[in-house]
Each structure stands twice: as structure tokens, then as C-alpha cells.
Design a protein that fits this description.
By secondary structure, the chain is of the alpha+beta class. It is built from one helix and three strands; from the N terminus they run βββα. Strands 2-1-3 form a three-stranded antiparallel sheet, with no helix packed on it. A hairpin with a 5-residue loop joins strand 1 and strand 2.
């Protein structure tokens, strides 16, 4: 629920009221009973809650433009056998 600011047109008393958006605006000053006007507020602005940001809050996006290399599918033993076979020819 938002907080609304009011000012009395007669005595100048300013006050805040915490009320629902759907609630009727206040019409009388709590001090003198005269008519009040609702003031235009700047809002609460940006509110941070908690102790801060964490590394897990945002994923790091890797650069997808770099070419992907395919690992050699042969095992070290197979590559040794291929070299030995070539040497024996």
C-alpha cells in the first residue's frame, strides 16, 4: 500500500497517510477539520532489500561467436598404435 501526502488548505498542516489505492482520499485535516489537498509525491524510488548482489544472481553469458573445437575422439593408445603402424611400413 502506498503512502499519500496531504496538506491542509487552512492551517498548512502536512501529514502522511498509509492507505490502499482503492481507498477514498482524506477530506478533512486531523488538526483543524478544514479541507485538505493530496500532494503529488515523487514515489519511493528504487528500493534495495537484502545484503547485496551475489554471483549467482546473474549468469555469465559466454561468447557464442568463437568456433567450437571438436576434441580428438581417439584414445591415447589408439594414436600410439597409428604412429607405430606408420613407422613399421
Amino acid at each position: 500500500m502506498p503512502t499519500y501526502d496531504y496538506r491542509c488548505k487552512e492551517c498548512g498542516h502536512q501529514f502522511e497517510v498509509f492507505q490502499a489505492i482503492s481507498a477514498e482520499p482524506i477530506k478533512k485535516c486531523p488538526v483543524c477539520g478544514s479541507e485538505v489537498e493530496r500532494l503529488i509525491g515523487g514515489g519511493a524510488g528504487l528500493v534495495f532489500k537484502g545484503s547485496g548482489f551475489y554471483i549467482t544472481d546473474y549468469k555469465n553469458k559466454k561468447d557464442n561467436t568463437s568456433p567450437k573445437t571438436k576434441p580428438d575422439s581417439s584414445t591415447p593408445a589408439e594414436s600410439t598404435l597409428k604412429k607405430e603402424t606408420k613407422n613399421s611400413d
